[in-house]
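User: Teach me something about this protein's shape.
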Amino acid sequence: MSAPPKNSDSAGVGAPTRARIVERTLRTDRWWLAPLLTVLGLSVFVVYASVRSWVRTAYFVEDYHYLTPFYSPCLSDSCVPGSSDFGTPIGELPMIIPLGFLVLPFLLGFRLTCYYYRKAYYRSVWFSPPACAVAEPHGKYTGETRLPLIVQNAHRYFFYVALVVSLINTYDAIRAFHGADGGFGIGLGTLIMVGNVILLWAYTVSCHSCRHVTGGRLTHFSRHPIRYRLWTGVSKLNTRHMQLAWTTLATLIVTDFYVMLVASGTISDLRLIN
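Assistant: First, the predicted structure itself:
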């Protein structure tokens, strides 16, 4: 019926007070499918975003002012003409440094420390635990009290930077209402960029840190009706935080891929106005 554990751990599932079962789990369903899909999904985004951030080609469409979010803001002399609305305070950059290096680390930090993404990669990458009723391989757990996981506590500060980046992305989306003749215009790329920035705002403000900013440390909501309304709205969005986390990864890829196709001349932008 039972057998001694294969290791001599004195904690976790190997603790002397726990039932000694050889099987890793008694579950008979495909519990491993969700962690596997999570790893695949995250890997696709990481590989795509890494490649696109370093290639330095086909990231700006001058005729319609389409700038991919992976390169925004572009502040280096290495940026192609017209892509640097905020100037070029930084000189030429070696190829090893992405042109969006100023914001990419903060956006990565915001995603990595996000409460949902923590759950996703803790379970899928570190198997801590990989699923309910499935033993994790770690003999002890120290939580987020030491390096590297203590950095997770900086999530609220990454959130503030993400707000600034969202404003920059909003500016880029507004700038995309540009026609080839210099006037007002709308293309498929414009709609894609606007949709992307709307979802990015939804993901950013649905963050748990935003809930704390809007309604944290309030003893009586009745005395702060405006903050209560804000907190209520953010809380409703927060219930969709997981879906928004995945959706925005997809829209970032779609936006960048479309801009790349148009900028490289592979396809022509579908123009709706001008």
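Now, about its shape. Residues 33-55 form the longest helix (23 residues). Residues 104 and 114 are 15 Å apart (CA to CA). If you'd like, I can walk through any region in more detail.
User: That's plenty for now, thanks!
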